[in-house]
Every structure is written in C-alpha cells, then in structure tokens.
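Working notes for the structural subgroup meeting. M.R. asked for a predicted model of this chain before we commit to crystallization trials. I am recording the input and output together here so anyone reviewing the notebook later can reproduce the run.

Input as submitted:
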Amino acid sequence: MNEPRPARWLWLSLAVLIADRASKECIERTSPYFRLELVPHFAALVHSVNTGMAFGLLGESPARLVSIFLMAIAAAVVILLIWWLLTGRAGGALTQAGLALIAGGAAGNLLDRVIHGGVTDFVELHAGSFVWPAFNVADSAVTVGAFLIIGELLRSEQHSAQERV
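Returned structure, recorded in token form:
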C-alpha cells in the first residue's frame, strides 16, 4: 500500500486559511461597534481587532514594534510547520493534521497582521460576567490542532506504557 504524500496536509492548511479570510472579510464589512447576540448570555458575533498577542497581550505596546515581532514569529512558525509536513517528519496522522491546522491558523492571523496591522476577531463567548476574549477561525484551528497533537502524544504514551508492562 502506498504511503500518503506529506503534502496532502497542506490542503487542510489552505482550507483553514481560506475559511479564516472569508469569515474575517464578512466581519470587516460591519461597523467597528458591531455586536450580534447569537445565543443570549453565551455567544455573540462582534467586530474586534487585536493588535497584540493571544488574548490581547501586549496590545497596548508600541504597535509597530509588536506587529513586526509577531509577524516574524508567525512567519517562522508557518515555514517550520510546512517544512515538517513536507519532509514527513511530523509523526502520525493526528500530529500531521494538527500541524496543518496550526499552520493554516498561523498563516491566517499572519495575513491579517500584514493587511491590517492586527488580527480580526469575531466570536465572543460569555457566561455571566465572565467574557472569553474574542477569537476567529484561525484561532480555533490552532486550538484544535494543538489538541490533536496532544491526543496523539497521549495515545503514543499509553501504547509505550502498555509495551513496558
């Protein structure tokens, strides 16, 4: 049986990038004060721009310096992940899918920083007075990708532990 080519996972990265950009484009056409409650007291669509890191960290820093720093890191991450995927060094299918999701998400947020100087976020979750910072499709892909990688690591650790017994 032929082994699947590592480059096939780049299609997943591209799909994430396209879905992320399309969803952000829809939100960017709204007012900067746009807010639509989807599920009262739980989920809303908002128009938010994050010039900082995850959860708005460093958002108050001199924007140009932070933006250049974040773009350089994101570009390096995307290049490294694509290299891992293309060379077949990424491990099993869950890890490869996870890395492809992370690469697509990182590329989506990098593209946003290049185009707008910040990342467009639009999904806000809240419960009572607790509000989770707004996020987007790219952020979701990175999160799911990380969980897939952790899942494969835990699964391989279980197999290793069973073999030692």
